[in-house]
Write a structure and sequence with these properties.
Helices cover 63% and strands 0% of the residues. The protein is mainly α. It starts with a helix and ends in a 12-residue tail after the last helix.
């Protein structure tokens, strides 16, 4: 009952209003991706949807998936940029002058363990998580491709296309990357991966 009350409040309907699939599906087109859209999608029973409603729900679900992918990129960005505490036994010159582990190696080992742990708890391969992390650092709010990350979060570009943009523009001069991003982003979802 809570979910139905929540949905009727969001849709501006009375609590005793029938929340059939048509009412919810009609609201999906204008819903921004996030908690509200996820909640409405969760209320639907696919076996009660017509063909056109099924397609409309599919469109909304894809927008939500894109938003969720952006959220995962934000999590990976955070995980990668969390500070690494160095134990007192670390030789500050170890990376350059001795066989002992120094701060750079220590930080790399901690980051590798974080990646392994995230991969394990999300049932993904370490390679997949490493690739997503590389994209996340570029697509984050302070990354050079923040506009692509924002488009992904808003559901305007697919995860695969955002990753292709990140892979293709990684390592370029920031000004060049920004110019290319601005040129391809408006039509990115209309282009094949190869054309991107």
């Amino acid at each position: 009952m809570f979910a139905l009350s929540f949905a009727s409040d969001d849709l501006g309907l009375a609590d005793d209003c029938d929340l059939g699939p048509a009412v919810i599906v009609a609201a999906l087109a204008s819903a921004e991706p996030g908690a509200q859209l996820h909640g409405w999608l969760s209320l639907l029973d696919p076996s009660r949807l017509s063909e056109s409603e099924t397609l409309d729900v599919g469109i909304a679900l894809e927008r939500q998936r894109r938003h969720d992918a952006a959220l995962e990129f934000a999590l990976l960005h955070r995980l990668e940029t969390l500070p690494v505490t160095l134990p007192e036994l670390i030789d500050p010159d170890g990376d350059r002058c001795s066989e002992l582990t120094g701060p750079i190696r220590w930080a790399a080992q901690v980051q590798a363990k974080r990646t392994d742990l995230y991969a394990a708890v999300t049932a993904q391969s370490t390679t997949t998580v490493s690739n997503k992390t590389a994209a996340a650092l570029l697509l984050g709010p302070d990354g050079p491709l923040a506009a692509t990350g924002a488009a992904l979060a808003a559901g305007r570009v697919s995860e695969i296309r955002a990753k292709v943009i990140a892979e293709q523009l990684a390592g370029l001069d920031l000004a060049d990357a920004a110019a290319i991003e601005a040129a391809v982003l408006p039509d990115a979802d209309l282009l094949s991966r190869g054309r991107l």
